[in-house]
Design a protein that fits this description.
alpha/beta; single chain; Archaeosine Trna-guanine Transglycosylase, Chain: A, domain 4; about 450 residues; 10 helices; binds S-adenosyl-L-homocysteine; seven-stranded mixed sheet; Rossmann fold
């Protein structure tokens, strides 16, 4: 299979990224793309690396290789390291644990990138990991090439905490979620250009990150030309409209790619399908295209999402298969329970319901109710595709919720597939937060 073709751009542009480190803005001029790579930021790193000590109870055993050392774990120092400085992290017992980059303002006080004292954190380490991430995706693409869009770099899942890179038909979106990554950004961008030959690169630091990391929010094209309006990407034999910067800005959930197809393959013959929280029509249209279903009802509370979904139905010639409904998920399901309306497949893909730790109990209750109502609307032999993208609700908790819903509904449930995000979103076993997407496919006998 061919490698993903990212377009013909000549790598001869110069980009300039303004990196705001603490109060003074630091301007880092990107190297010409063909210039030697490792010229970014070694200026912090003195030969003697400073150490940060953890509080009592925190040791190599309890930390493991988790890439985040939180502020609450670190012993305050009279002269704390500077922002972005490379530090050694020592347990309360004084034993060396690992090496990371320090940020005095961030709740993630040290982001860990190295677990060996031989390894130094600099452009060279970042570029090596970028190359490894790309290589892994090329391996994946050699097996499955049903998309022209994918996640090239998945932050902690690729040992690059704070950096996410998505490709949409050759247009890269580079998302920085950690201030300590900024000094290496120009080198990283140069590497992405030389390895992937993108059409464009959009750099994004969202408001939430900007606030929590004390850096500047931004969203601008730093390389090439991004289509001014919506453009199409391909996935699972369908085209999907995305608009990364326009007024009607729309993105796309790349992580559900394989789950959409898996759901379609489980749809019983002649199925009546309900897709709850359809957004761009992701599950609904994939099932309409590949499932041997009779009809699909797709629900979302957002009119804008449904407009996008209708446009996708139109361009894929699937308008007569799907009925779009603007409604709240609880209302849409309760209405069906009251009417006694039954389906052969129900997809539940709500937004992140537990954004913060204190939202978890409420989120669990909402997952319980959603799944309970859906189970009551499934015919014998029907299939439930139930998802949760809340990183704070772990997989076993989500399965517990499902168990509770099945008990309350008095139904048997066979778990057919216990799925996560696609292989382009690898999970770091030391960082359970990277296993954020759960997609359980289960059958009511
Ligand atoms: N299934 C989609 C992704 C869903 S994202 C895919 O395959 O790409 C979550 C969606 O839930 C968003 O479109 C959002 O508008 C919708 N949503 C949020 N709250 C909702 C609610 N209370 N009722 C119905 N839809 C809701």
């Amino acid at each position: 299979m061919p490698k993903l073709h990212l377009g013909p751009s000549e790598p001869n542009h110069l980009f300039t990224v303004y990196c705001s480190l603490d109060s003074s803005a630091l301007k880092v001029n990107a190297p010409k793309v063909n210039a030697p790579k490792a010229n970014a930021v070694e200026y912090y790193n003195s030969s003697k690396i400073r150490a940060v000590r953890l509080k009592p109870g925190k040791s190599r055993e309890s930390i493991g290789r988790h890439p985040w050392i939180l502020d609450a774990s670190v012993v305050e120092s009279i002269s704390p390291p500077r922002q972005g400085e490379q530090v050694d992290v020592l347990g309360a017992d004084g034993k060396w644990i690992g090496r990371g980059l320090y940020h005095p303002q961030s709740r993630i006080r040290v982001r860990m990138y190295a677990w060996s004292q031989e390894e130094s954190i600099g452009s060279e380490l970042f570029l090596r990991r970028v190359d490894q991430a790309i290589e892994l995706r090329n391996q994946m693409l050699a097996r499955t090439s049903h998309s022209d869009s994918l996640r090239w770099i998945n932050s902690e899942g690729d040992f690059l905490s704070g950096l996410v890179v998505d490709g949409f038909a050759g247009n890269l979106v580079v998302q920085v979620t950690a201030g300590v990554v900024l000094p290496y950004l120009d080198a990283i961008l140069g590497e992405l250009v030389s390895k992937l030959r993108p059409r464009s690169i959009l750099l994004s630091v969202d408001e939430k990150t900007a606030k929590s990391e004390g850096i500047e929010a931004r969203e601008h094209v730093v390389y090439g030309e991004l289509p001014a309006g919506p453009f199409s990407i391909r996935e699972n034999g369908l085209t999907w409209r995305v608009d990364l910067v326009g007024g009607q800005k729309t993105g796309y959930y790349l992580d559900q790619r394989d789950n959409r197809l898996a759901a379609a393959l489980w749809a019983p013959k002649g199925a009546k399908v309900l897709d709850v929280c359809t957004y761009a029509g992701g599950f609904a249209l994939t099932i309409a295209k590949h499932g041997v279903c009779e009809s699909v009802v797709a629900v979302d509370s957002s009119a804008k999402a449904l407009d996008l979904a209708r446009a996708n139905a139109q361009s894929n010639g699937l308008t007569d298969k799907v009925v779009w409904e603007q409604a709240d998920f609880f209302e849409a399901l309760s209405l069906r329970v009251d009417r006694g309306e039954l389906f052969d497949m129900i997809v539940l893909d709500p937004p992140k319901l537990a954004g913060a730790r204190d939202k978890v109990p409420k989120a669990m209750a909402a997952y319980h109710r959603l799944n309970y109502l859906a189970l009551r609307c499934l015919r014998p032999g029907g299939v439930l595709v139930t998802c949760s993208c809340s990183g704070r609700v772990d997989r076993s908790d989500f399965l517990d919720v499902l168990l509770g819903s099945a008990r309350r509904a008095g139904k048997d449930l066979q778990i057919l597939e216990n799925r996560g995000a696609g292989a382009d979103h690898p999970v770091n076993i030391h960082c359970p937060e990277t296993d954020y997407l759960k997609c359980i496919i289960a059958r009511v006998p």
